[in-house]
Amino acid sequence: MTSIPKEPFPGKSRKEDHYLRILRQMETLGKLGHWEFDFITQTIHWSEGIFVILEMDPVEMPISLELGYNYVHPDDREKAKQHMEDVFKKGIPYNLECRLVTKNGTVRTIHSQAELVRDDSGKPIQIVGIFQDITDRTESYIQLKQQELRLSSILQSEPECVKVVSPDGILIEMNPAGLNMIEAEIPEDAIGKKVEALIEPSDLRFYRSLHENALKGIKSSARFRIIGMKGTHRWMESTAVPLTNQKGEITSVLSLTRDISEKVINEEKLIRIKRNQEALINGTSDLIWSIDTNFCLVAANQSFLDVLSFLQQYPAKEGDSVLVKTAGEEFYYKWKEYYERGLSGESFTSFENFISPITHEEEHREVSFNPIRNVDEKITGLACFSKDISSLMRKSKELILNEKRFRVLVENGADVIMILNPRGQGKYVSPSITKVMGYTEKEALSLNLFDVVHPDDSPRLKKRLFDVLALPLGGSLASETFRAKHKDGSWRYVESTLTNMLSDESIGGIVDNFHDVTEKETQLEAIKTQNKKLKSIAWTQSHVVRSPLARIMGLTQLIRTGSLTKEEEDKSLGYLIDSANELDDVIGEIVRKSQEVIPPEFNSKT
To answer: Which residues does UniProt call coiled coil (predicted)?
Structure first.
């Protein structure tokens, strides 16, 4: 690029030289240049400022109009020519903005203005103008436009509501997300209207405070409810800031508003849960509390506060020490040891039995201690839980006593209780098995039921085990008698009842309850024998006795008729005596058999 000479302009007076220097400095400072076109010579004259802009040497002056157009950017060249023609023909002012290409190939944007000079007849003889290099301004403008487009794109895609509101509360601008929140079909439904019309009346004070703070230059936030144009209620959280003009005057309010309806619902839900938890925690007799590493109370339910208040003899509150000496040194050091164990990182449970100083009744408590750690796994405190197990302990004692009583009954009772699997193998047998069958518990459990049942009774037992499985839980079969081998080798009669308890978790088998009925069976057998003998006697009475008796009666009747001869009568009397003797023998036999109807002694080994 040709440098501008610093020496006085040759051929110029001092005064002219002075003004030319000033002109050159103005052009350089303002990135300006002046030009003129002579219609008579069809040449263009440029000032040094233009040569500087075009990176040309002034020696190339003057140039023709066509050559001058060659420095116009090809895309803008036709526009420049058309504008010059319109100036000539239509008389419009010359005012052109276009791009030039310098000699070195740099593209610059210039803004040119010119004035047309005419002669006395009105014919154009010259056009004189200036142009300014506005490349920096244009690039800045382009950058600003690009930035504006980016901001506009961000604003349009922003999922939250962005709006601009005038000082008097009129909506000036709102992005699509905001329009969707207020249920506006088109921007015109909301733009230009009062924002307060959308606010829940009872929350207007919150919105107005937010808007007024922004107009005072104060950034603030607020929550309020809105009612959409279609009637939908929403909770909103809005942050407002002032917008100012170039003079720093607040002209409007910019707000970023988000829909927090779901957040508010969850907050309300959490509050309800917290209140329910507090009600549950404070409504229990269990003690719940936590302490810090200095043994100071951090949080506690009402039950624990009541106990601590009683122990320290004044109302308990957060921050109080949980180590109380008023209950005695033993109590103090015991609980200090518990807390120190927990704060050292140990989780454990302690069982306490004492007379309550409040109720004066015996209490049993299960106390749990669990360390509290922060995100760095550092112990910051201790969570404690004391559960009243007094009722449980009383019931436990009752169960123990009941179990002892039950065991005494089982061990000393006449019945044997066995728990069997479906194949007849024992899982449990009561100690009374020894008294009834002679076997020890271990011996009995090593035997299968079919090992001791009489072979003739095995089919019935097999069917019985099958039948009991078809019964519902707790169902029992009717009692039935079987023969079982005693440890001494004898056969005993046992009466057995089977109950299905397979699906009961605590039993898980078939319960066989049986007892020895050998004596009963012996008596039954004796009665059967007596019945047989009595039947024999009855038969004898009904058949053997009748024959001689009938003869006696017949002979007696015959003699009484008096129709017999002496010889026949004597003979009949002989028959009568013989029949009487026969009857006497029969009666003697009956007496003898009656004396034999005595239960025979039962031989247990037969």
So the answer is: none
